[in-house]
Every structure is written in C-alpha cells, then in structure tokens.
Design a protein that fits this description.
Helix content: 10-25%
Number of helices: 2
Distance between the termini: 18 Å
Shape: globular
Low-confidence stretches: none
Length: 80
C-alpha cells in the first residue's frame, strides 16, 4: 500500500518493531515511544518505502520505513 504525506499510521501488532520492543522492554524503540507514525514524504519510485516521523518523539527527524509494518489510522482525503 502506498501512503501519502499526512497519513497517520500505527504499527501492526505483528510488526518487527512491535515484536522487538516486546522482547527488549524499555529499549526506547520506535514502537515503545508511541506506536504512531506521521508520513512526511513518499518515494515516487517505491510503494514499499516512505519517510515518517514518530509521534510523541522528541526528535524532529524523519526515518525511512516500510509500509508492510503499518496499518492506516487516518488517511489524507483524495485530492489534497
């Protein structure tokens, strides 16, 4: 699934990130920080990869993620 800038995502329960943070508690991993990601940029050449920012993080950095690790929470309406 291709995500668009502004989409709000949630880590899947079986996501690698969620599983890792369950095994390594208090690791400060992405899933333990807040399980939501805001899409900040997309890669036109890929439907798998996108850039997103961890909601609730002190960092203003966007990270490269793979779409197969997330479920859509809220989509940007078409045409925006």
């Amino acid at each position: 699934m291709r995500f668009k800038v502004g989409d709000l995502l949630k880590f899947k329960e079986d996501s690698w990130w969620t599983q890792r943070d369950a095994v390594v508690p208090n690791s400060g991993g992405a899933a333990s920080l807040g399980r939501f990601i805001l899409v900040t940029d997309s890669l036109e050449s890929s439907e798998l990869f996108f850039y997103g920012r961890i909601c609730g993080s002190d960092s203003n950095e966007s990270h490269l993620w793979t779409s197969d690790q997330f479920d859509m929470v809220s989509a940007v309406p078409a045409g925006l």
